[in-house]
Write a structure and sequence with these properties.
Helix 1 packs antiparallel against helix 5 and helix 3 packs antiparallel against helix 5. The chain has one domain. With 132 residues, it is mostly helical. The chain is built from five helices and no strands. The relative contact order is 0.20.
C-alpha cells in the first residue's frame, strides 16, 4: 500500500514534531525524571540521550526506537511482567504522587509525537530536527 501524503496533514505533523522538539529542549528533564521513576537508571540514561540529542539539534527521528521504548515504559506496558523492575517501581508509586501525573503527561506527548514522526517518515521526510 502506497502512502500518499495530504499537504495539510503533512504540515500538521511537521508542527507536532516541531512542538515535540521544543518540548524536549525545554521540558526534557521531566521525561528523564519520569523514565527514572518508572524504569530506573538504565531508562533514565536512554531518556537523557534523546533529550541531549534534541538539545544539540540532532535528527530526532534517529531516536525512534528509544522513543518508542520510552513510550511503552510510560504507558506502563512493562508492568504486566510482575517480576520486572518496572512493575516493582510502578507498584511502589502512589497514584497521588505528582510525579505519576508528570509521567502520564510525558506518555501523552510521546504518543502524539511518535505518530507524527512516523507519518513524516512514511511521507519521505528524511529527518526531523530544529535549530539547537
Amino acid at each position: 500500500m502506497k502512502y500518499t501524503p495530504d499537504i495539510r496533514a503533512l504540515l500538521r505533523h511537521i508542527r507536532t514534531a516541531d512542538e515535540f522538539l521544543r518540548w524536549l529542549r525545554e521540558e526534557g528533564d521531566l521525561l528523564i525524571a519520569s523514565a527514572d521513576l518508572l524504569g530506573g537508571p538504565s531508562w533514565s540514561l536512554r531518556a537523557k540521550a534523546v533529550v541531549h540529542g534534541a538539545r544539540c539539534g540532532r535528527d530526532i527521528s534517529s531516536y525512534r526506537r528509544s522513543l518508542a521504548a520510552l513510550r511503552k515504559l510510560l504507558n506502563l506496558e512493562f508492568v504486566n511482567y510482575l517480576e520486572s523492575p518496572e512493575a516493582a517501581r510502578f507498584a511502589a508509586l502512589s497514584p497521588d504522587d505528582p510525579r505519576a501525573d508528570q509521567a502520564r503527561l510525558c506518555a501523552e506527548v510521546l504518543s502524539r509525537s511518535l505518530r507524527a514522526i512516523e507519518a513524516l517518515r512514511l511521507a519521505g521526510v528524511p529527518c526531523v530536527r530544529g535549530a539547537a
